[in-house]
Design brief:
The protein has a two-stranded antiparallel sheet with strand order 1-2. The chain is mainly alpha-helical. The protein starts with a helix and ends with a helix. The protein has helices at residues 2-20, 47-61, 71-86, 94-120, 123-149, 190-209, 216-239, 242-261, 266-295, 302-320, 330-336, 357-383, 385-388, 392-407, 413-416, 418-434; strands at 27-32, 42-46, 172-175, 178-181. The model has no long low-confidence stretch (mean pLDDT 89). Helix 5 packs across helix 6, helix 6 (190-209) runs antiparallel to helix 14 and helix 7 packs parallel to helix 9.
């Protein structure tokens, strides 16, 4: 028994390392299915893949099973994956679709494994929050340095893109006549960077709310949380991600409302509110020149119009191919059928995936695929929702899941990019682990 427990602790340690490494884009190129090499149409071996694979192998080596996961959740998860497998039949590039199906299966297993381990030991949730919060501080520091110097800071080994003043197609903001680089950390886009920071922010909320004592350890943890909240908020500002700002506001409101409705956590919630108001005041005073010009949406803004166009392309594919065009094949199929070109998107750098994961999932895996995905979310949120809100772990896990789902309304990375996929499926696992299904 001690032998098995030691191996199980090793699995937990590997998953903690994996959560810290979520934003690191370290990868090795293996093969591309398209002339242009990118993360959508090529096979890469990521550093996080190695951590994930070793974790899963070790978990199953122990003969572990998902006993704590409700049978309906397991069945719907399997159905969703099977629909993705079936979509390979309709794919323009079957081997690309098969590769994406394999990755999806690994992420679903990650959710089930994480849920099982957290259900057995709730302290594991706390360690995950420590891991993500530390990584978020590191990413915020990298992001602010990128913003300050207008270029990458030399962390290519960790997956940082090589960026300088002349790098094309890189997100920049023009403020008072000067161009500033949008911070991306070691990720591929500012919105993915912002999403991870919002999840990190939730982890700091959890650590602050659960450090209610007056011993040295509790005070040190509150100081760490306050400094972390300040650092992560600076990172969010220099990402210039409006979807990040909106999502951060919504999940913060969720946590505060939860705290005020639970008498036991009302006092630390008041302290957290004071910290947030003070942080907001200080950062608005310092960075108002950068925040205010970005806060609104201009009529006819390119990023908004492009998202609408991509979503229309996805909807057209759903109507024409209700069984899906194959997981990972939305963009290639749209190019072949001239859907981008017909809408004036004639340059290949404008050929991007649908910027809504619900439309994207439906276009790639079919109507049956999106229904299975929504059924999975529905089972978690509606059948076990009350249990989730009984303690801070559930509220934070629900907030983390909301981050991916809210970003998924206006972006595609929770479905088709490794960092986004890890955030989505890890949060699913956290929700499954916190839920008491007895």
């Amino acid at each position: 028994m001690n032998f098995l427990r030691g191996y199980e602790n090793n699995v937990r340690a590997l998953l903690i390392c994996l959560t810290f490494a979520i934003p690191f884009g370290t990868k090795k190129f293996l093969y591309s299915f398209a002339p242009v090499v990118d993360e959508y149409h090529a096979i890469f071996l990521y550093g996080t893949d190695i951590l994930l694979l070793v974790s899963l192998v070790l978990f199953f080596f122990l003969g572990q099973r998902f006993y704590s996961i409700p049978p309906t959740i397991k069945k719907v998860s399997l159905a969703f994956w099977i629909f993705a497998v079936l979509s390979v039949v309709f794919a323009l590039t079957p081997w690309l679709a098969a590769y994406r199906v394999l990755r999806l299966g690994l992420y679903i297993l990650l959710a089930l494994v994480a849920g099982t381990l957290i259900h057995r030991d709730q302290k594991f949730f706390r360690w995950i929050c420590f891991s993500i919060s530390a990584s978020a501080i590191f990413q915020a520091f990298i992001g602010f340095s990128q913003f300050l110097y207008g270029k990458s800071v030399g962390l290519r080994l960790l997956g940082e893109s090589v960026i300088n003043a002349t790098t094309p197609n890189v997100g920049r903001m023009t403020l008072e006549g000067e161009k500033y680089l949008r911070a991306i950390g070691t990720m591929s886009h500012a919105n993915i960077f912002a999403a991870f920071l919002v999840i990190g922010l939730l982890c700091f909320f959890y650590l602050y709310l659960t450090s209610k004592g007056w011993g040295a350890k509790h005070i040190a943890l509150r100081i760490y949380s306050v400094l972390g909240i300040f650092a992560v908020c600076i990172g969010l500002i220099v990402s210039f991600s409006r979807s990040g700002w909106i999502t951060a506001s919504l999940v913060t409101l969720l946590v505060l409302v939860w705290g005020f409705f639970h008498k036991e956590y009302r006092r630390p919630t008041l302290g957290l509110l004071f910290v947030l108001l003070t942080t907001t005041y200080l950062l608005l005073t310092i960075f108002s020149w950068a925040i205010i010009p970005r806060a609104g949406f201009a009529p006819g803004e390119g990023s908004v119009n492009d998202r609408i166009t991509y979503n229309k392309i996805g909807a057209e594919l759903i109507l024409k191919y209700p069984w899906g065009v194959g997981i990972g094949d939305q963009e290639l199929t749209s190019v072949q059928e001239g859907l981008y070109q017909a809408r004036g998107l004639t340059h290949d750098w404008l050929w991007q995936p649908v910027h809504n994961i619900y439309i994207l999932i439906a276009s790639e895996t079919g109507i049956q695929g999106i229904l299975a995905f929504l059924a999975l979310l529905g089972l978690m949120l509606f059948r076990y929702g009350k249990n989730l809100l009984r303690g801070p772990e559930g509220a934070i896990a629900l907030g983390m899941l909301a981050v991916s789902l809210l970003f998924g309304l206006v972006d595609h990375f929770p479905w088709d990019l490794p960092a986004g996929q890890l955030m989505l499926w890890l949060s699913v696992g956290l929700v499954l682990g916190i839920t008491d299904n007895k």
